[in-house]
Amino acid sequence: MTLLITSIAAISLLVGGVGVMNIMLVSVTERTHEIGIRLSVGARPSDIMTQFLIEAVVICTLGGLIGIVGSALAGVVFSWVTQEFTMIFTWPPLVLACSFSALIGLGFGFFPARNAARLHPTEALARE
């Protein structure tokens, strides 16, 4: 049973990571003009890359926190329905879950952030 739940969680994280990567790629495409302006006024490519990596990490960490709150609410509801069900939360797994969510954001946000950082200012400003 534990292996099944772990497999489902791993697949969910993979699908969620791909979803975040796609959202970030669309964000880079939509904000190409803004990136070009920032690069032309002196922003370094590392600044652009850091911005998009932070955005991806924040999105994934918030998703992890929302998931933790949702599971806590589900635990409360199940404990009201039946007295045989109790959900116990401890800090280490919660911190690990949020940390892993942040790592997923970092890993899957790298490709879009790198694409944004590699844009040339003149080409980025020409697109619109």
UniProtKB/TrEMBL annotation:
- The reply on keyword Transmembrane is yes
Give its localization. Cell membrane
Which named protein is this?
ABC3 transporter permease C-terminal domain-containing protein
Alphabetized, the UniProt keywords read: Cell membrane, Membrane, Transmembrane, Transmembrane helix
GO (cellular component) term, any one: plasma membrane
ABC3 transporter permease C-terminal domain mapped to chain residues: 7-121
Molecular function, one GO term: transmembrane transporter activity
> What topology does the record note for this protein and the membrane?
Multi-pass membrane protein
Does this UniProt record's set of keywords contain Cell membrane?
yes
Q: What is its main location?
A: membrane
The residue ranges crossing the membrane are 6-28, 52-82, 88-111
